[in-house]
Amino acid sequence: MSEAKRPDAPQNTSPLLEARGVYKSFKTLHSELKVLQGMDVQVQKGEMLGIVGASGVGKSTLLHILGGVDRPDAGKILFEGNDIFQQKKGYLEKFRNTNVGFVFQMFNLLSDFTALENTMFPALIRGDNKKIAREKAESLLTEMGLKERLHHKPSELSGGETQRVALARGLINQPKLTLADEPTGNLDAKAGGAFMELIRKLNKEKNQTFIIVTHSQKLASSLDRVLQLTDGKLGPLDKNSTL
Ligand SMILES: Nc1ncnc2c1ncn2[C@@H]1O[C@H](COP(=O)(O)OP(=O)(O)O)[C@@H](O)[C@H]1O
Ligand SMILES: [Mg+2]
Question: What's the pTM?
Answer without folding.
Answer: 0.91
